Amino acid sequence: MEKLIEKGLLVIAYSSIAILFIITFFIFKEGLPFIFREGLGTILGGVEWRPTKGEFGILPMVVGSLLVTGGALVIGVPLGLSCAVFLVEFSKPKVRRILKPAIELLAGIPSVVYGFLGVILLVPLIRVHLGGPGLSLLAGSIILGIMILPTIISISIDVLEAVPQSYREGSIALGATTTQTVSMVVLKAARSGIVTAVILGMGRAIGETMAVIMVTGNAVAFPGSILDSIRTLTSNIGIELAYASGDHQEALFATGVVLFVMIMVLNLVASMTRKKRIR
Amino acid sequence: MIRLDPALSQKLVRWVLVSLTALTVSILVFIITYVLLKGLPVLGWEFLSTGAVDAGRGGGIFPFIVSTVFITVVALAIATPLGVGTAIYLTEYTRETAATRVVRFAAECLAGIPSIILGLFGFITFVLFLKLGWSILSGGLTLAIMVLPTIIRTSEEAIIAVPQNRRDVSTSLGGTRWQTVTRVVLPGALPGIVTGIMLSVGRCIGETAAVIFTAGSALGTPTSIFASGRTLAVHFYILATETDAFGMAYGTAAALIIAILTINTLAYWMMHRIMRKYS
Fold this sequence. Notes:
The structure holds 2 protein chains of 2 kinds.
Chain A: H1 2-38, H2 40-45, E1 49-50, E2 55-56, H3 59-90, H4 93-105, H5 111-129, H6 137-147, H7 149-161, H8 165-173, H9 178-189, H10 191-207, H11 210-215, H12 233-240, H13 247-278
Antiparallel strand pairs in A: 1-2
Helix pairs in contact in A: 1-13, 3-6, 3-7, 3-10, 4-7, 5-6, 7-10, 8-9, 10-13, 12-13
Chain B: H1 6-39, H2 45-49, E1 52-53, E2 58-59, H3 62-93, H4 98-112, H5 115-129, H6 136-161, H7 164-172, H8 177-206, H9 209-212, H10 232-242, H11 246-278
Antiparallel strand pairs in B: 1-2
């Protein structure tokens, strides 16, 4: 009986690997033949996306995904990191005890709600005050920047709290102010952990779909400015999967393969920085 | 580089950090308050207990509440045994080896896969390949994969937190490993495991991209797990993008946010209590 239970648990434990393998297999099975047939260069380097006319270039979407993710980091990282530094180094423990869980709770707000508020409040604001259609790279970056805040804040707080108190005491004993201690000692010690927080935020931004579809306008073109519309890899799948068939559907799976590879590379980097930190 | 007076820079940094933190917190507070203010007037018994009229422009959200509950129950009925089983195996039945590291790495990768990729996978595997069609079952299976990493991680942490001497007592009284797990370890770890399950429920309720292509968007109340059903989040997305019934959309968003925040608050409250108990 004991042996049987142990075998059963082993099978269950390895099923999580099996699931990852099956997902990879199915996505690649649908996407790879198409990539080989059309050529990786023509898909990744192509600028025209006309799936009904046999043109499947996804370069504008790759660029769109990278730009909106970069924009989200430009907004989310300074805000999130400042928030974490303030809560750990400058505020009273009581404030942190209340604000940290409150911020983490906000990670649970559905992405569609962020997208909707983006359309209702942010897009008209951009259209009226900055010009352009409003549905834009800028709107996408701001919404995603806000969405990744809870991830970045919560991980950064954990990382900063893990820096030994003796480091701070040593620095203060040498006559440094709190600001000097934070910038010269604490942030240096926490560097790799903060990198992990940023990478995880990046993963969340690059993989987000519904909110991005709602606020970026989804035009397949290279944006000339941050006020132009963009389409991301995720939006491309989200918008067209419902009615695609044949080559078109395979092209969407090829888009999925490209996105999948990008995410896996990010995961690997994140897991490597984490290992380095533990060592 | 200009050298600032340390006392001045201390004041300056503090001021900048305080204002950035205040900005972050007020953005997040604003989002919730705005949705609740706009949505609560719509949210009455009538709205919660009747079906949609004219594709959601009138009527209520009852069928979508039923679909959401069905899909979440299916997802957790599958993910809980798998996730808790994996956690038990990793913590109680093996030492840290290369094999357990591979399982952990697979779970981490699974956690990083964007929900649209899971939607793509669920669509091709459950809906088309296994011929389950757009159904509660397809959606539930897809969401089970999505929350599996969360359940594994939180269960693992909860099991590790159970003091070692309790296991030793059980073993010294002649308890087998499985008896120790079921009568000593699991009861002690239960609150932590339940916390993980509740956080997963929150994620299932708020998810859109992974369910819209697997569970479909039928307007009626699902009568079996093989019927298509529209979850609250999917309904909200369709209302916000395809209709101009913004009042109804705010009502649905308020229902979503209240449900998720209530569940997540309870989960965090439980986690807090556990942490106090063991430290």
